[in-house]
């Protein structure tokens, strides 16, 4: 009984352990790592029988190929195996392949059932039946071993199939790559063919345009032939009218000759009047320039007076400062002795009265200067108004004379234009007679050109038909290849979802090729239209040939008429040639008169310009001498300032230490300013020397120009050549540039002189304060 009780207790313990393991197993089914823990439960349940080996083998098989069904679905099958066989294999493999978790559950359920049967048998007093459970376990192990062998064989088959599928997918990828390259090459070929088609279309358009141009030319020729017939009929009437006009022109020529002689006499009188007026203008300009010089001198005097007034004002301010210093000094001395202070006060009052008198005198002088300036400005304005009135009257006279002269020239030009128009009419009549004779030969040459163009168009049409046939064949081949590619791509799309991008690219290529096909169809339609156009062109050319033959017949008739009229035209030409000679002689005389007048005007303008330049050079020399005097005055002032500084250095010991420091700083600043003034003085001297050299060069050049003018104004040589005129123009431009530079330098020097004067005045004031 003890054995039975111990066996029942051990079985209860086993049941409790089995229940715990079931709970653990259920919990572990929710988490990964399911196969390993189920194998551990199987090993703990039955020590005699080890089903964990089977579970581990099955789990290892599944672990080695965890994605075998996915590979089987996603990898592309070879073309040999059909889709139905693939699906059958998959279904059999899935049926034959139980998972490790289901197997472990099955074993646990059997083990629990066995334990329950044993516990019931023990409770009921029956003997445990161990042999049946062992036999069942052995049968189960055999079944599992058979399943393992089947799974291993299936896995080996699947591995072989997977390897085959991988090789086939690699081959398909290589084929796709090659086909892509070939497709790109074919696209390039299609682009070149499209360019060729566009070129052919352009040539066809050009040919059509040429055809339209030829048709328009033929219509124009018809119109011209009709117009020429009308013109030939009109020419007879015009010849009669032209004879009458020639007689009238002879009369007009005689009257024009007499009037031209009168105009020449009048022009000579006008030229004399113009010369007189020009002399008066020249004199008035000289007076104006003299007044301007006087004004400039007066302005210089005014500026000097203004500078003197400013200097006096500064002196007044300095005197005020001295008075303030004296008052301070008197306040300081008030604390000292009374006698000395009284004496100093008397002396200071006397100095103050003297300074006040000087200030009043300076103010009176300034007022007189301002009054004189106002009077002079009023006088100058009045004189300028008078000169302007005189110049206005002279210019009015000149304009009236020039207007009369221009009227005479215009009348002469009108007579000449009438003669030229008559000549042109006769030349047109001759050219029209020649053109009618030439039109027949031109028409035949145009017919030959049209035939040659028609042959060229036929050749181009044949070549385009051949090219289009080749293109159609090429496109048919491309379409067949595209259909093959579409079939292969459809299979690949069903087998693999990762290759969707390739399909999209191929579809875009397909659309491009469909567009090319539509374009090819359009080109075929255009070629059919062109063929119809060529047929129409041939019909039109035949009609043109018949029309040209009729026009040739008309041309022969016109040539006979023109031969009759040419005899009459020869007589007219001889008469016109004699009249042309007379007109040429008259024109030469008029041209000579114009040249002489123009040369005289140029010479007079040059003389005026050179005289003005000579006056400018004289003014420059005067200004240079004035600036040199200013520089000498500045040098004397600088020497005086140096003497004052030396005296101020001697008087240093009288002042206190604080005053010594201030005077040292002031003296240092004064020395620096004096050095600057000396450097600027040297620069001014150099600039003055440069300006003197420039003035000398200008005077030399002016003398040369005057000599050249004298040479050109000789009575024997009235004509000035173009080369001499260009040389004179260049020299005048160079003189003007140098004059402007000299004026700029002069303005800069005057500015610097003003600055130096201001600095000198400041230095004088500082030296006076130091002397105090």
Automatic annotation (TrEMBL):
GO terms for cellular component: cis-Golgi network; Golgi cis cisterna; Golgi cisterna membrane. InterPro entries: GOLGA (IPR024858), GOLGA_cons_dom (IPR043976). Residues 388-587, 591-771 form the Golgin subfamily A conserved domain. The keyword Transmembrane does not apply. One of its GO terms (biological process) is Golgi organization. Keywords: Coiled coil. Residues 1-76 are annotated as: Disordered. Residues 38-52 have a biased composition (Low complexity). The keyword Nucleotidyltransferase does not apply. Residues 134-308, 345-651, 688-766 form a coiled coil. Residues 17-27 have a biased composition (Basic residues). Signal peptide: none annotated. This is Golgin subfamily A member 2-like isoform X1.
